[in-house]
């Protein structure tokens, strides 16, 4: 007798349920998606004991008639697909007909639904329908799930605490609510309302759910593109230490996509602090035929027909959002004034400011209205503008200027600074190997090194931005490249070389600048495409408005 046999139905259903219903939040997501597909305008989710004891999703969608109510609990029964070609034109969140039967297979499920004419109640236990009856009910659907995973106790042992699972259920609703601001969402956890989102516009919904201020979100401008991109990006001050603040959607379907995350962060490259991650809500809209959502059991991943087009569109959209308004930083809040000592002997006034954050958008200062006053601590340029007092970090500002010059030089294929007498450079074995590995990137930036035997190279050319040709400058660049992050592509290597070269060529804190040099640097900075941060994401300038100065001098 053979060893292979067909699994019994009850066992196959539980295995299938494990792929779709990983935890209570998975069930909540599937049920809310069904409600949205039904055209619901108000959705209420109730959760008890982390969703293990109870999950109830109530909606005012179109509901079902008695026949469809029974069929909805059969595997692969769906109203979304009629022909084989429909699978390549998915326009709904659900389409497989797996959610309800998968949830029912590992719970006690009750479905009460009405199409506005007849109401039906269907009860199932462990996937088996045990009762069907006609009931009085308003238009819409109520799905009640009790005792989730009661017949698969091993699965529950691998899940987290009820508090954490309840939080994940709320997060699942929030993620969908971000993409559907026109729908009202309510979440009740253990009898207490923990989330209420009335119908609103996209900005108000994002502000409410991301728990930030409206002026901390930059809208993504809608431009005529083959791939439409909408949403918001957070200003640099609200960048996170992880990617939990990144929300991506494809045709309003929540997805987890490394491609979209990379594209968004590349769009914010050099604009947010190094080591932090962009806060964003990015909605990508594509023709249904250009995306395949049928590549993951829980539909969390998608496959794009043209990944490069999607990547470029998201990268460009995020970059344009950051350029949609000046990102001038203003110290926030009134200063704390403190006198120390006795009345007879007081120490100088101390002004304490909290960390800076973005205030209301300001008009970008023009050179004609920006007057250089001087230099403080040989590190900061002080200037006056119509917006107030402007403090410029000379090193960060020069880094931005040189970085963009290098970018433009490569695009324009400008001539190099060829050395009349090549400079021999003795490198370590590791540095010599790095030169070989990154030779193309070094050449594109304008650093030409020619092998001269062993680990010795001749430096024949440098970019024009280099303050002077020296072996130490090249070694410093190689040292930073060796100690930096892993290079993923030639483009990444070129950018790393640009950043390193600009950093080591820029003026430093401690360098005294003449009036002419300061004015030239400010003029160059204001001509940059992204003048408000250096490539490390640090601010190049801070503005103190007149009203802030007045508060410091107790004039208001």
Chart the SSEs and their pairings.
Blueprint: H1 9-20, H2 24-37, E1 42-48, E2 54-59, H3 66-71, H4 99-105, E3 108-114, E4 119-125, E5 128-135, E6 140-146, H5 153-157, H6 162-179, E7 184-189, E8 192-197, H7 202-210, E9 217-219, E10 228-234, E11 246-250, E12 253-255, H8 258-267, E13 280-285, E14 291-292, E15 303-304, H9 307-322, E16 329-330, E17 336-338, E18 350-352, E19 357-358, E20 371-376, E21 380-385, E22 388-393, H10 394-412, E23 417-426, H11 429-437, H12 439-445, E24 448-451, E25 456-462, H13 471-483, H14 490-505, H15 515-526, E26 541-544, H16 546-552
Structural class: alpha+beta
First and last CA, distance: 93 Å
**Total of domains:** 3
Architecture (CATH level 2) name of the largest domain? 2-Layer Sandwich
Instruction: Find the CATH superfamily of the largest domain.
Output: Histidine kinase-like ATPase, C-terminal domain
User: What is the strand content?
Assistant: 15-25%
CATH topology of the largest domain: Heat Shock Protein 90
* Rg of Cα set: 30 Å
Mean pLDDT: 83
Number of strands: 26
Tell me, briefly, the overall form. elongated
User: Helicity range of the residues?
Assistant: 25-40%
Segments where pLDDT lies below 50 for 5+ residues?
Answer: 336-368
Number of helices: 16
Q: What CATH first level of the largest domain would be assigned? A: Alpha Beta
């Amino acid at each position: 007798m053979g060893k292979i046999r067909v699994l019994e139905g009850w066992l196959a259903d539980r295995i299938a349920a494990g792929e779709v219903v990983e935890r209570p939040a998975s069930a909540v997501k599937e049920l809310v998606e069904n409600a949205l597909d039904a055209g619901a305008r108000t959705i209420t989710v109730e959760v008890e004991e982390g969703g293990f004891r109870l999950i109830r999703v109530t909606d005012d969608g179109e509901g079902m008639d008695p026949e469809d109510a029974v069929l909805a609990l059969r595997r692969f029964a769906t109203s979304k697909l009629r022909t084989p070609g429909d699978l390549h034109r998915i326009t709904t969140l659900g389409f497989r007909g797996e959610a309800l039967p998968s949830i029912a297979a590992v719970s006690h499920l009750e479905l009460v639904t009405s199409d506005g004419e007849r109401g039906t109640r269907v009860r199932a236990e462990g996937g088996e329908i045990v009762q069907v009856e006609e009931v009085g009910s308003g238009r819409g659907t109520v799905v009640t799930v009790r005792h989730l995973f009661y017949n698969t106790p091993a699965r529950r042992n691998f899940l987290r605490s009820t508090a954490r699972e309840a939080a994940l259920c709320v997060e699942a609703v929030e993620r969908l609510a971000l993409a559907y601001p026109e729908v009202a969402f309510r979440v009740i956890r253990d009898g207490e309302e923990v989330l209420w989102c009335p119908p609103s516009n996209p900005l108000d919904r994002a502000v409410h759910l991301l728990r930030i201020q409206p002026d901390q979100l930059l809208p993504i401008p809608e431009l005529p593109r083959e791939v439409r991109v909408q949403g918001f990006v957070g200003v640099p001050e609200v960048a996170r230490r992880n990617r939990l603040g990144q929300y991506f959607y494809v045709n309003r379907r929540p997805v987890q996509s490394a491609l979209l995350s990379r594209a968004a962060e590349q769009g914010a490259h050099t604009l947010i602090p190094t080591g932090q991650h962009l806060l964003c809500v990015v909605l990508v809209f594509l023709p249904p035929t250009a995306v395949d959502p049928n590549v993951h059991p829980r539909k969390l991943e998608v496959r794009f027909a043209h990944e490069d087009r999607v990547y470029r569109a998201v990268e460009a959209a995020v970059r344009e959002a950051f350029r949609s308004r000046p990102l001038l930083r203003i110290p926030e809040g009134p200063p704390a004034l403190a006198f120390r000592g006795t009345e007879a002997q007081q120490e100088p006034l101390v002004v304490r400011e909290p960390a800076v954050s973005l205030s209301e958008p300001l008009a970008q200062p023009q050179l004609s209205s920006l007057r250089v006053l001087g230099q403080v601590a040989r590190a900061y340029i002080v200037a006056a503008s119509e917006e107030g007092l402007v403090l410029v970090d000379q090193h960060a500002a020069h880094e931005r200027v040189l970085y963009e010059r290098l970018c433009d030089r490569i695009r324009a294929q400008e001539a190099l600074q060829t050395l009349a007498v090549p400079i021999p450079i003795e490198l370590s074995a590791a540095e010599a190997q790095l030169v070989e590995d990154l030779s193309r990137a070094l050449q594109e930036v304008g650093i030409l090194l020619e092998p001269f035997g062993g680990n010795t190279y001749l430096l024949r050319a440098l970019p024009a931005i280099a303050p002077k040709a020296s072996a130490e400058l090249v070694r410093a660049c190689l040292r930073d490249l060796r100690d930096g992050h892993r290079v993923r592509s030639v483009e990444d290597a070129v950018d790393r070389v640009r950043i390193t070269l600009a950093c080591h060529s820029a003026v430093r804190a401690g360098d005294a600048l003449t009036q002419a040099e300061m004015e030239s640097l400010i003029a160059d900075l204001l001509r940059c495409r992204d003048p408000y941060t250096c490539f490390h994401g640090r601010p190049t300038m801070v503005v103190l408005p007149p009203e802030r100065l007045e508060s410091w001098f107790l004039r208001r």
